[in-house]
Amino acid sequence: MAKTDDIDGGDASTRAAHRLFEQWADVKISDGVEPDLDRLCAEAPELRSRVEALIRGFHDLDQLLPAADDGAGPEAPEVSGYAIGELIGEGGMGEVWRAEQLRPVRRGVALKVLKRGFNLDRAQLRFEFERQAQAGLDHPAIARIYDAGVAEDGRPFFSMEPVDGLPINAYCDRHRLPVRRRLELFVQVCEGVLYAHRRGLIHRDLKPSNILVAEVDGGPQPKIIDFGIAKVIQGPGDSPHAAAPQTLTELGQLVGTPAYMSPEQASPLRTSEIDTRSDVYSLGVVLFELLVGQRPRAAWAEDGDADRGEPPTPSTHISQLGAHAEDIARARGVPLPRLQKLLRGDVDWIVLKALEPRRQDRYGSPAELAEDLRRHFRDEPVWAGPTGLAYRTKKLIRRHRTAVGAGVLALMVLLGTVAGLGVGLRRALEAEKTAREESALAESTSEFLVTLFDGTDPTSFDPSPTARALLDRGAARLDSDLADQPRHRVRMLESIGRAYQGLGALDEAAVLLREALDFRRQDSATDGPTLATTLHRLADVLSARGELDAAKGLAEEALELRLADAPDGLSAEVADLQQQLGVIAERAGEFERAEQLYADVLTTREALFGEKDLSLGGTLNNLGNMTARRGDVEPAEALFTRALDLYTEHLGPEHPHVASTLNNLAIMKGHHGGLEEAVELHGRVLEIRRAALAPDHPDLGETYNNLGVALTDLGRLDEALEMTRESLEIRRKVYGTEHFLYASAAFNLGRIELVREALGPARRYLTEAKNIFERTLGPEHAYVSYPLQSLSKVNRLEGRIDIALQQLEECVEIRLKTLDEGHPFVQGALVDIEKILRELGRAEDADRIAARIVPQGVEINGDDGDEGDEGDEGDEATS
Amino acid sequence: MGDDFELLKSARSGSPEALNRLFARYGHRLLALIRLRMGPSLRRQLESQDVLQQTLLKAFKRFDQFDGDGETTLMGWFGAIARNEIRDQAKYQHRKGRDVDQMMPLDAALELVDPVRTEVSRLQFVEDARRLESAIEALDEKHREILLLRRFEELSFPQIGRHLDKSPDACRMLYSRAMTALTIRLQRQAHG
């Protein structure tokens, strides 16, 4: 088929955009569905906006032209032995027709046929259809396949039991099924999937539209459709004969709904890893959606916190939905707080375990998933839950509900009514015929509390004043109620400390964790790993508070303890601690050390998790920043590109982590002359972040700031001023004014004002920045030197030469602590000093300085020290 | 579809209201089709409104031939009649050697389409229609033809396939390429 003539005009990129658009239109017209633009433009993202413009043009044209409202739909296939009725469904690749099978038995069927225009290996597809038909799956939760073959026009088809039902999520919402009923229905689905697994069939495309719910005998009956069909389509993994998709667009069409796919399915390199646990993952997504009305990936992206490579729990997710959450609760027949309570704990854990990114961490089969849900129904401890005694005790209480509910119990404990709890517990324990000593009971009590506070992670704690008040009260009771149970008290200290950290109350967290650490150090029963964990946590908090020396000491101690257990250094904990130490070193301005540490982390994590693991992303970024800092542009770019590929593959091109990496890349480009490119990249970062984050999210502050820096260097001062002001405002809101990031924005504003020769405002901003840097980072931190150098310029322009000179000398002194004398930043300041000395007629002093200046080819560029843009990746502080 | 069939029936039996509605429903599209089929040169010789009138008249006369529940739509039927009418009139014109250049393009019928359209949007609409018309006329012959068959005569791809002696899939592809070419062309026009 001849290509469109009109494409031939224009330059190469225009032609390329036209070709992509042509592919888009071919799919749209042949198959009636719009191809996924991300995939279509995956190899040429820079063309995306142009392709989008063409698509808009296409839609406009479509509107303008008279509608083709004839049989625009598909034509009925002719199939021997069947009378075809009307079209009842249409998907990306298939059409479903109502039909009557005429022989060997006469019965109503749904006939599913491949859409025309698909360049699939039809023989392979037909083979697969027939395999399904012969498998003879006979289970109430699976729609039966009767027959398979090819239609007269060569398209493969199969006929199946007609299912008059709705997708499972739509069914549940329409009937406002409560959580429990949804879970029960879901267990039936698991049983169907399990049944097929036992016959060697993996579904590979489980999603609500493939899990229909029909009313059978007045009750809901799930019917899974399309077992194994996705296999042929997803190709090449274990069916080498399946046709590889012809084009990118086709690929976009074929691989189904990425939101339901497990990581191993989503990665083209890992298809050989697909097994029954891939279905478990998809079931997890479906379950998540049944519970909170949205898929986890969407929730995950909005959350902006995927550092652990996990989605938030359903209960966390729902608490972040705002007004919409009420509707979701209503569709489940309960008020919102009740819904949250129903999800928190067991259900959260079960969903997360099904959604584990690594398949070995998931449930081994749908049977285990279903069984865990049943255990939850029976109030037995679930496998997905914590193993601690506390949790089991909590379950015990739940099963033998005494006069008080568990929630009330928690409050009672916090308010000091431990005696009441003791009675309740004792009764429960007796009922279970588990004779326990008083001490065991006490242990249960504190473990129980630990569980209540722990949840699944500290950030899941509701940051409302109530939560804070509850924590404060809990902390206050530590001394009175648990004074005689020091080991239990220390666990409480750690839990409440972590909860404080999650709320951002770092001071309180530090106090409690320090106390816990003191105890652990003296306690003979504390083993190495336990002590290391406490050390690590406190180091986290101190590092976040800027107490770098203390944090470093603790982390190093923890590292030593961990190395005792893993002398070869090959352990995840060792890598986590090295990462933490790297971040601390970087913050302290010890860049060489930081680089070495990051390199070690990278090696360790690669060895442990492989080269494609998501956990490498943060390290690649940090290492990239350090490499870029030394001016090693190409290796740095390679590191950033690797991180970009990794994130795009795992998380998609619009993920905030992609933005963070682009940000780092942009900063590097900006520092090495690629200012236009830097502005463009920052613009892209802004686009992603604006779409994904709240308007006053700190990352947006970062982007505005960095865009401001690049624009300043380009001389686009008005835009720069506007961006930097945005940044300052966000940071004021987020961090307050006593924070080095606020000071960075203030410094950059001062710099712009200086270039604009508005000396008054410049002095104000620069002074403010310098003072804050000194107070928050210490007077000798490298950051202090930047406003110093700019202030010296202000003073020179205003004729205060002596002060200017003194500031420059201070500046050099500070820089020499972290940089060589040959570094452009140092040299730049030296050049300025020499100039001033000559102006002042101090020739001898000037000569001495001149001797330190490296003569040729040095680019004197340290003038305005364009630092203050921070390129750190968000996930530095390991947890 | 059945609705149109009824409309055509009552129009033929003399209901002026049905005729009006039919004209409102199809006049614009049919006129656009006729203008495009004639092209700029023929448009200088024939009056598209005449062709439209004749087409509708013949359609009413041959009403019995229209297979209301077959696969051809009313528009497809009108389109086929218009094609013949243009051919006949062009032949006649040729024989008559009638003087050219006396015609003006007539878009009056556009106003029938949507009586509630405001003046501004009507002008915009006419503007869009002209722009579209010239872009379609500039298309490659085979692209223009498939676009007319598909969008103006509302033929299905198998019908087009029979008409052009191609497979339905090949027609789909050709149509896709025609839409692509037209979109690009319109975009180029818009950006100068």
Task: Describe what you observe in this structure.
The complex is a heterodimer of chains A (879) and B (192). With 879 residues, chain A is mainly α. Chain A is 61% helix and 6% strand. In chain A, strand 2 (94-101) and strand 3 form a beta hairpin. Mean pLDDT of chain A is 76; it is low at 233-256, 298-309, 396-467 and 856-879. With 192 residues, chain B is an all-alpha fold. Chain B is 76% helix and 0% strand. Chain B has nine helices and no strands. Residues 96-123 of chain B have low confidence and may be disordered. The A-B interface holds A 1-7, 9, 18, 21-22, 25-26, 28-30, 53-54, 57-58, 60-62, 64-72, 75, 116-117 and B 29, 32, 71, 73, 75-76, 128-129, 132, 140, 147, 150-152, 154-156, 158, 168-170, 172-177, 179-188, 190.
Task: Describe the protein's topology.
The complex is a heterodimer of chains A (879) and B (192).
Chain A: H1 12-31, H2 37-40, H3 48-64, E1 82-90, E2 94-101, E3 107-114, H4 122-135, E4 145-150, E5 156-160, E6 165-167, H5 168-174, H6 179-198, E7 211-216, E8 219-224, H7 229-234, H8 248-254, H9 263-266, H10 276-292, H11 296-303, H12 314-319, H13 324-330, H14 336-343, H15 346-354, H16 366-377, H17 389-399, H18 406-414, H19 418-431, H20 438-454, H21 465-481, H22 486-503, H23 506-522, H24 528-544, H25 548-565, H26 572-587, H27 591-609, H28 616-629, H29 633-651, H30 656-671, H31 675-692, H32 698-713, H33 717-735, H34 740-755, H35 759-777, H36 782-797, H37 801-818, H38 824-839, H39 843-852
Antiparallel strand pairs in A: 1-2, 2-3, 3-5, 4-5, 6-7, 7-8
Chain B: H1 2-12, H2 16-45, H3 48-61, H4 74-96, H5 110-113, H6 119-138, H7 141-152, H8 157-164, H9 168-190
